[in-house]
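Wed. Picked up where I left off yesterday with Protoheme IX farnesyltransferase. The coffee machine is broken again, so keeping this brief.
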Amino acid sequence: MHTSSQASAQPTGRSDATGGAHDATPDASGPEALRGRLGAYLALTKPRVVELLLVTTVPTMMLAAGGFPGLWLVLATLVGGAAAAGSANAFNCYIDRDIDEVMNRTKRRPLVTGEISPRAALVFASVLGAGSLLWFALLVNMASAIFTATAILIYVVGYTMILKRRTPQNIVWGGIAGCMPVFIGWSAVTGGLSWSAVALFLVIFFWTPPHYWPLSMKFRRDYATAGVPMLPVVAADTKVAREMLLYTVAMIVSSLALVPLAGMTWVYAVVASGLGLWFLADCYGMYQRAKDPARGKLGAMKVFHGSITYLTLLFVAVAVDVYLPF
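Structure written out below (tokens, as returned):
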């Protein structure tokens, strides 16, 4: 998350043409101010979240094409996808600015600090979103544009406006938006979908709770203060960890379903199984520690970071498998 600081003006003596001295103040429209402003708008898009979404897009496109689908198509899809995800995140920052203000994790976001006004953020999010849809429609295809619009609506309306403040299962159903890059990438190549795309979609869908709930455990006080009923806020750690195990098992099954559906090789099957069992072991370890605190700290952030490693390596395996000759 990007934060920008405002440097206080320090008086410096400077002689003018008449020999007098006066205080010099920084130019509010200079390069530093511009960089700070651009950085604040970039922070609204939550670039780290966007990066993770795009990690799933390229391997999906490669699987759909049976190879590399072409540099222009990949770049066009990534640019459009980044703009769409950035738009959804900026809308999220606008709608949730009251929550962000009371949470330690988010209190330095630009709308809270006043670096960007709510109106400017809303305009920025709207222009970015409309631009991404037009981009996909003109430069990729209508199918990908429709899936992009669906993703933005699910995240902004479904998750942020409806689910987030009302149900502990918010991230489960709101997480559908995070699965949409698979459909966007697949449809960008083929103009439609397939059962292989559905399997990849389900991998991310079932991955989302065991990815996000550990983070919610770490910041549960923040969420409780903000009145957001994340499952770790309203349920015992044992219940959360048990549900994480169930979602992880479903995730592994979905990843292996890709073998018959997409004709993946035994190499992918071995890698997917190994990665899945490794992540399942991490979740099981957290469950055991939740049942018996004497075993040590819960280790939620270890599971959180492990989930990112899992998803990244699994989709790398998808991309590599396309080129295996057997």
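Quick read: Residues 1-26 have pLDDT under 50 and may be disordered.
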